[in-house]
Structure formats: structure tokens, C-alpha cells
């Protein structure tokens, strides 16, 4: 395949591709030079990229001056790596990848193909100019590349058995390729963030400290925003609410606490994927181990038995039950508390609506 021609606009849109790295390398920016005023705009943009990720879970893709936009990406990578927080690393990588996805959907097919090949995908465009109808597929992608990037997708449409497969190639549409590339980009950026950063100029460290403060202020709120809508946090029993808040803030809980929290969440409708994400902020987070344990408790592995959380008396024995509400005195299980609290909240909401209609 002939190498695609990329403009500076393309490098600004997709700053993770090798050509963008070469562009930045040719600028010959030294770390200690970043403290000079001429790089203020680049640093402002790098900081804004991270702010967008923390607050909005995506990076604004409005393209600015290319000499600012392109180098701001590796500097943002350096700053996030220096923050050294697993939550922001995951969130920043996903935010950049989501931004790229929104642009890939509108991208020329040839250019998307070139970007995919930057990740060594075995992918080929399907050309059928004889048909007057819309092509059912746009690409043939080797099944190993498909599986590598679709394993975290739980929708049935992404199961390999539900795809058209021929001679080791999965037939996909452009929108599917964009979604798979988002996963690839996210993983690539996460890998870039797992590096040790040396000493940085004070002006950059000041920016990093501001971002750390913003992260601390927003982390709890972000966790709440990401909470599944069908799960009602306000109905949690005090013990589970404390376990949830402690975990969401990045602090460790005991083994029995993790089991109680995980089993409670999966039993009230939270997906294993959501539960795994909850534990990402912990410093000892291990993706493979956490996913296995959560899926085992959810009944998706092993004996296929979904575990229920321990009874209240067991939680008290292990020191997990600290504050007992009036409702706690009348129940013996955290799931009973949750269901009863939901009914109470629903009844009060109905009564309030009826009172408003009468007024």
C-alpha cells in the first residue's frame, strides 16, 4: 500500500500516530525550555486537554494552531504520567481515544485505513464499485486484530459468532472499524502513560499540582456521574455506601469489604465492567485479577453461581458495619435495606407528586 499523505491538520487530529511524533521531534523542544514564555500556549493547551478529560471525559477536538496543538499532546502525556494516578491515566487515555473516534467516523476511508495500519492491523478495504446499493461492509480485518480490540465489548453484536468471517478475516463496516480503533488508541495511550517522569521545571509542576487538585475535587463527582442510572446510590445501606465512597476515592478496603461491595453491586444490577472500573483508582489495581474476581462473584466464571453479600451480623463481626440507621434495626441483610429504601423513596416521590397536583 502506498503511504498516505498527511497534512499538519491530520497530525493535529491524530497526534498519536508516528508522523506526529516525528513532527514534534523536529521541533527539538527541550524539557527545560518549556518554562520559557514562548511555550505558554502549548502548555496551556496541554493542561486544557487534561482538564477536559477530568471534567468532560473527552478532549475538545476543536483544532487550533497546529504548532500548538500537535506538541501539546506529548506534553499532556508527560504531565499525566507525572500525576501518576491510575484513575486519571485511564480517563485521559479514554478521553483522547473518544475524541479520535468522533473524527474517525467522518474520516476518508483511505486515511482510516492508513491509521489502522500504523497499529499493524491486517486490514483491507472492500471495493465494490459495480453495485448501485450501499456496500454491506467496508473492511476485512484479521480476526486476531478484531478479537484484541473487542474483548471488552459485551453487546452480542460484537461476538465473533455474530460476525461474517471468511478465511480468517472479519467483515466490518466503517463505524465498527472506528470503534475498534478507539480501543486500540486508548490502549496505546495508556501504555505511553506508564513511564517514570524525571524532574520537571517548577512552572510545569505548578500546573500539575493544579490538575491534581482538580482531580481530587472531581473524582468523587465523576464516579457518581458514571454510576449506572438503574442503580440508586441514595438507597445504599450505610455500610455499603462507606465501602463505595472509600473505594471511589482511591483508598483501600479489606478483602471482606471488597467481597461485600462487589457482591452487593452485581446483585442490584451493576455490570461487572462497571464494578471493575470502580476499583481502577486503587494503587494495587490489577486488571486481570480484578476482572476475574468480579466476574467470579457475578456468576460469570467458575461454578456460575452469583454470590450474595454477607448478612448484617457478619458485616458487624468484621467491623464493616459502623453506623446503624433506624432502617438497619429492622433488617438483617444489605440487599433487604436497599429494596426497602427504594420502596420508601418511590412512595415519597408519589406522595409529593400528588401534593403538587392538589396545590
Describe this structure in words.
There is one protein chain. With 359 residues, this protein is mainly α. The chain has two domains: 8-207, Transcription Elongation Factor S-II, Chain A; 227-358, no CATH class. 57% of the residues lie in helices and 4% in strands. It is built from 15 helices and four strands. The protein has helices spanning 8-13, 18-27, 40-56, 66-83, 86-104, 109-118, 143-150, 174-193, 202-225, 238-248, 255-267, 272-278, 287-297, 312-317, 334-358, and strands at 123-125, 139-142, 164-166, 169-172. Strand 3 and strand 4 form a beta hairpin. Helix 3 (40-56) packs across helix 4 (66-83), helix 4 crosses helix 9 and helix 5 (86-104) packs antiparallel against helix 8 (174-193). The longest helix has 25 residues, at 334-358. The model has no long low-confidence stretch (mean pLDDT 86).
